Amino acid sequence: MTKQRPYLVGITGGIGSGKSTVAKIFAILGIPIYYADDRAKWLMSHDSELKKAIIEKFGRESYSESGELNRSYLAAHVFADDDKVKTINSLVHPAVKRDFESWAAAQNSPYVLKEAALLFETGSYQELDKVINVSAPLKIRINRILLRDPHRDEKQINDIINKQLPDEEKNSKADYVIKNADNKLLIPQVLAIHQELLSLAQN
């Protein structure tokens, strides 16, 4: 009898929304978490097919002589240009998709979570069974980031927020919305979604 693949669930949220905190609660419940943004960085340094494609598009300088990703070069020559960002995303996205699928297939769990900042922006939410958006008021998000990242100022934070889809749009696209505001308890919201996902995955 072939092993059934787990139910694939995405978890996203704008910067400062608290999606990492919510993901940790799911992890405590025993749900495997795939951190897509961290994994993308790892693949850019270790996936030979992806490295070859990046070098072809952006030049040998994209990597050091020892084969490490040249982050300062990419920051200056790629990430400052929106068209080049789209190009590099078009290379990284398929590699992450392949990596996530093989990781998910190896998990022994009714469902797994894929945590990523730009699930809706990249269109990768369409490859998942359900998506959770972690939502928080803008003022709270900005205050959280200022406390967490003292090297950033409010203008930098607003620039990042403006590059992400508005919360209202993410909420309308998501199957579940977790409200992470000061007057909302996270754990009961997570437990309710967890129970529903277990039920869906088992059916």
Question: What does this protein structure show overall?
Answer:
One of its GO terms (cellular component) is cytoplasm. The chain has 203 residues and is of the alpha/beta class. The chain has two domains: 8-32 and 107-203, P-loop containing nucleotide triphosphate hydrolases (Rossmann fold, 3-Layer(aba) Sandwich); 37-106, P-loop containing nucleotide triphosphate hydrolases (Rossmann fold), CATH 3.40.50. 55% of the residues lie in helices and 12% in strands. The chain contains ten helices and five strands. A five-stranded parallel β-sheet has the order 2-3-1-4-5, sandwiched between helices. Helix 2 (36-46) packs across helix 3, helix 2 crosses helix 5 and helix 3 (48-58) runs antiparallel to helix 5 (82-105). It is globular, with a radius of gyration of 18 Å. The mean pLDDT is 92.
Per-chain topology:
Blueprint: E1 7-12, H1 19-28, E2 33-35, H2 36-46, H3 48-58, H4 71-77, H5 82-105, E3 111-115, H6 119-122, E4 130-135, H7 138-148, H8 154-163, H9 167-173, E5 176-179, H10 186-202
Parallel strand pairs: 1-3, 1-4, 2-3, 4-5
Helix pairs in contact: 2-3, 2-5, 3-5
CATH architecture of the largest domain: 3-Layer(aba) Sandwich
Residues in helix, %: 55-70%
Please, how many helices?
10
Q: What is the strand arrangement across the widest sheet?
A: 2-3-1-4-5
Radius of gyration from the CA trace?
A: 18 Å
Query: What is the molecular shape?
Result: globular
Strand content: 5-15%
What is the CATH class of the largest domain? Alpha Beta
Largest sheet: 5 strands, parallel
Low-confidence stretches: none
* Structural category: alpha/beta
- In round numbers, the mean pLDDT is 92
CATH topology of the largest domain: Rossmann fold
* Total domains: 2
Measured between the Cα atoms of the first and last residue, the distance is 17 Å
